[in-house]
Amino acid sequence: MSSGRSPDVVVLGGGSAGFAASIRAADLGARVTLIEGGTLGGTCVNVGCVPSKTLIRAAEVHHRAVHHGFDGVRTSAQPPDVQKVMAQKDALVTSMRQEKYEDVIRAYPNVTLRRSRGAIHGDLSVTVDGETWKPGRLIVTTGARPWAPPIAGLTESGSLTSTEALALTALPDSMIVIGGSAVGLEIAQLYARLGTRITVLEALPTLVPAEDADLGRNLADYLREEGLEVRTGATIGRVSRSDGRCTVKVTTDGRAGITGVLDYQACDEKVCFTPQSVPLSWRVTLRQLDRERVKQ
Questions:
Q1: How is 184-249 classified by DSSP, letter by letter?
Q2: Model pTM?
Q3: Under DSSP, is residue 289 helix (H, G, I), strand (E, B) or coil?
Q4: What is the DSSP letter of 295?
Q5: 120-146 confidence digits (pLDDT tens)
Q6: Shortest CA distance to 143 belongs to which of 8, 32, 48, 30?
Q7: In whole angstroms, what is the distance from residue 76 CA to residue 98 CA?
Q8: Alpha-carbon gap, residue 196 to 219, rounded angstroms
Q9: Exposure string for 144-174, b = 16+ CB within 10 A, e = fewer
Q10: What is the pLDDT of residues 228-255, one digit of tens each?
């Protein structure tokens, strides 16, 4: 059913980009409808920067309680209460989402927030909750989805994405982190500092491979000094889980040219892969939003 008057601008996706676009359009005098069917705020506040940096700081406090560099100062650290740490992180995320997104958008009378999913049609009209509009401008900011590497058994083994790793309520005995770039190393170090035995597996010759190789090698040495096991040049053949035990088959070709097959396994093991973000293309976005074939 067509509504009486269409918005000037319809924005699909209530993450940071859609939020900024909505506010800018409103500032220019447009009537804006912002459509978000999930959690307002997008990656950074909900599952990215805010929760990760909060947990990194908590882990640093726990680590520095013992590893402070002063020989004459005797200190000790009790095992962390992970549930309380996560609850405090969640409370901060909720508070910031409310203050930086929910409250801000209410201050713009020209912006209407619709908590629903939109269906885009071939003529670029949009249907939401039975209403169909033909806006002057349509902005699609649906973000990205995680891409899992094609490793045999990875999904079936109950592996974690980086988002899920930031929401654990119990500290695993050990964790294998697949991916040695920024996100993977953040997760690896914070859990190592909280007491988890960590192995980092990176396919390329150095950590943070997008950066200078010397930086990656020095970073690997630093993490090893903190007790993490770091393997570069790693090719993962298969991930499997049986009777609570997870096994990762890895072939390594290190700097010394030594090649071997290693089994990483332990009880209460977590395998975390740090996925690349694959943008949702315009065509894929349409299929996901209205579940019908896009007609060109």
A1: HHHHHHHHHHHT-EEEEE-SSSSSSTTS-HHHHHHHHHHHHHTT-EEE-SEEEEEEEEETTEEEEE
A2: 0.84
A3: helix
A4: P
A5: 998 899 999 999 999 999 999 988 877
A6: 48
A7: 37
A8: 19
A9: eeeeeeebebbeebebbbbbebbebeebbeb
A10: 999 999 988 888 887 777 788 888 764 3
